[in-house]
Amino acid sequence: MSVNDDGQLSSSDSFWEVGRYMRTVKRCDNGYQLCNHLRKLIEERNEIEKKYAAMLTEWTKKWNNFLDKGPEYGTTLGAWKGVLTEADGVAELHNAMAEKMMDDVHTKIKFWQKENYHKSMMHFKETKEFEDNFRKAQKPWAKRLAKVVATKKDYHVACKTEKSTANQENNSRADSSVSQEQLKKLQDKLKKCQQEVENTREKYTAALNDLNSYNAKYIEDMTEVYKRSQDFEQKRIDFFKKIFFQLHACLDLSVESRFSQIYTNLHSTIGNVDPNKDLKWWSSTHGVDMGMNWPAFEEYSPELQSISKRAKSNLGSADGGIMITSIKHSREDSYGSYSEQPSAPPPQQQQQQPQNYKTQSSTNSYASAPRNDMDSRARSESPDGENPFGDGDMYDENEEGEEPPSAGWMVRALYDYVRAEDDELEFKAGDVFLQVALEDEMGWCRGKKGEDIGFYPKNYVERI
């Protein structure tokens, strides 16, 4: 600290200068703001971790969809999947990291901040206390300093005046035009100036001695307040150190057992890739080691004819009939207005029943004849003029020549059958119901199950 010739304090950054303690006071406010900034830092890192985890999850979902539909197979597919499993595991860890930072670190900062910084109307209570205590400790010394500055200024002014008067008096003695009376006045003025210099010098020296004698007390009082501010700041720094260690514990995945296990598993999964095993699987599933049902000669059997909706739709004539032994017959002819055939039998039957009726002639003269004309036309073309199918209905007897009982036969379903048309009977394997009409040449029977009556394929049931 120094005082210039104009009596003003020169610029100095020393803590001991008047008012320079405000930097230490402001540090208290800065501590509160630093808590806010640290919380903000953790919040932003939390968002980064969550976004990273979400991106990893979306990435694994995309590539899992590719692998599920893609051409990769076997143990090599397992390696692909292992990389995605690693990403899912890392995403889970980073989500856990984000939550832990908020729960274990962010919450503690907020609580500590609230406990150590107490807001008043304009300031924090702690800031106001430090400022008042520093001002109180500095005030006595500042007053003495102000007196020193004032007395120094008076002394310097007196010295300046005395020097100017002495020059005038010295010049007057050498100038013959100056009268003795004028010279005497200058000499009296010089004496007064010299006396003023002595008086101001004594006051300046006394004020300076008084200031210096108070320096020890000033240093003691200011140091006491400063120590309290240091203790307060040390508490903040110690807390921040603890918080940074906790943050480190959240961020350091190298000590997380699950993290190391993820890569142990990935390494093991990649090590399980076995080219020979994969190629052997391919050969047995898609290659030369596959079994084959080589074609063999099959004797024709009418009983193996397929009953399928597709066959009916492809082979029907204009009114939905099927040509059999040059005689057109359809379900409408046998049972009335029913026009649809049943859906295909179970796959195991469908494979064994060639659709022989597809190869039969579709140009026979009976293709479009209604059933009520069939008997007469067949009878007229017969050598003896009789109906080749006998008198009466062509379906009056079953294959064994049995007459149908008045109540019908009880049958048991061998397979599930789902109706394809409204006039069909639906049932499940094991259901028992009544057959009320004989089978027609297309393999359709009519049955009654509860209150429902409809058509069904004969090869779906067995008589009991």
TrEMBL record:
Residues 176-217 form a coiled coil. Residues 9-278 form the F-BAR domain. CDD domains: F-BAR_PACSIN. InterPro entries: AH/BAR_dom_sf (IPR027267), F_BAR_dom (IPR031160), FCH_dom (IPR001060), SH3-like_dom_sf (IPR036028), SH3_domain (IPR001452). It is a peripheral membrane protein. Residues 372-382 have a biased composition (Basic and acidic residues). Residues 406-464 form the SH3 domain. Keywords: Coiled coil, SH3 domain. GO terms for molecular function: phospholipid binding. Residues 330-407 are annotated as: Disordered. It is found in: Endomembrane system. Residues 356-367 have a biased composition (Polar residues). GO terms for biological process: cytoskeleton organization; plasma membrane tubulation; regulation of endocytosis. GO terms for cellular component: endosome; plasma membrane. Residues 393-403 have a biased composition (Acidic residues). This is Protein kinase C and casein kinase substrate in neurons protein 1-like isoform X5. It comes from Biomphalaria glabrata (Bloodfluke planorb). The gene is LOC106054434.
